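The records we work with from here on pair a chain with its fold. These numbers are not coordinates but entries in a learned vocabulary of local backbone shapes. To see the layout at work, look at the sequence and tokens printed below.

. . .
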Amino acid sequence: MPVKRIVLLPGEVHFSQAPDQLYTLLGSCLAITAWHPQRQLGGMCHFLLPDSKHNAALDGRYGSDAFNLLCQFMQRNTTSPGEYRYHIYGGSHILQAEARSLSIGGRNIDAAKRILLNASLTIDFEDTGGRHSRRVLLDLSTGKIIVHRLLHQAK
């Protein structure tokens, strides 16, 4: 079966199985990855903002909604969130003057940690913050994640 690389744009959530790969580019946005080692399936959500201010349908642009969508995919595949390994990536502070407490990136990091903690799930690895964008690739065959950091020039 050929490998399919699935590119996630901001606000998207995707779930698939081996041999697929999930790929995204992050700045201040944050990605939560989930991989099931026994079943070789998993997903990624790429959210832009920590919290939604609505009561409508779930919206992948917001952290809690994006994770809830990811959990729905898990349930459709007869698995539960506790069976997965979780990583978080992104949440960069792209602007030089940005204080972490005020930055979207910092708030996204805090939201991802809170979401997983509230669900009693462990973060196995994180690569967050800093002043660089990241390209993130999750290989669903192995669970290996490749991260390339892209440095920005200060202006």
Remarks:
- The chain is about 20% helix and 35% strand.
- Residues 76 and 149 are 34 Å apart (CA to CA).
